[in-house]
Amino acid sequence: MENIAIGSDHGGFSLKEKLKAYLEKKGYAVKDAGCFSEESCDYPAYAYAVAKEVSSGRCSKGILICKSGIGNSIAANKVKGARAALCYNVKAARLSRQHNDANLLVLGSVFVKETLAKRILNVWLNTEFEGGRHLRRVQQIKEIEGKRK
Predict the structure, then answer these.
(1) Please, what is the Cα angle at 112 between 21 and 8, to 5 degrees?
(2) Most buried by CB count within 10 Å: which residue of 40, 44, 47, 121?
(3) How many CB atoms lie within 10 A of CB 113?
């Protein structure tokens, strides 16, 4: 069973709850890193928690949701080993896996409603990294991470 971490801020809470139930129904083990209500909260803590679950190997993939997705993407990508992709459509989700080996999917609840979010999620979870010339580029990203201070 694949372990998936999921997290959101208050703006993504409702969609997170729906996607969490959807994933569990499909047989995934889901680790919910919060938030746990629609009460106002700060997204960086949840982005960090989910990215750490993935970068540590405790979870194979992660999902983050906030209103735009932008803040979560920025915060998650600060964690070494995290490759968070903000996807508003199915094609972007597919390419993020095929070309970038993205291990975190970020959704913006203002732009992606439940039906589309499930389609994006399914494609993202079921698309493999192509490797080849793309592997060289992912390695270059890892080298950049190593240079960060």
Answers:
(1) 55
(2) 47
(3) 12
- Start-to-end Cα distance in the chain: 36
Residue 148 is predicted with a pLDDT of: 58
In the structure, how many helices (H) and strands (E) does the chain have?
6, 5
User: Contact, 15 vs 114, CB < 8 A?
Assistant: yes
Instruction: Output the CA angle 61-64-69, nearest 5 degrees.
Output: 135
Nearest CA to 16 out of 24, 27, 7, 25 is that of 7
Residue 136's CATH number: 3.40.1400.10
Give residue 47's domain range: 3-147
pLDDT tens figures, 67-99: 999 999 999 999 999 999 999 999 999 999 999
pLDDT tens per residue, range 4-42: 999 999 999 999 999 999 999 999 999 999 999 999 999
Distance CA 106, CA 71 (A): 10
Listing from the earlier edge strand, what are the strands of the sheet with 61-66? 29-32, 3-8, 61-66, 104-108, 84-86
Catalytic residues: 66, 99
- Amino acid letter, residue 20: K
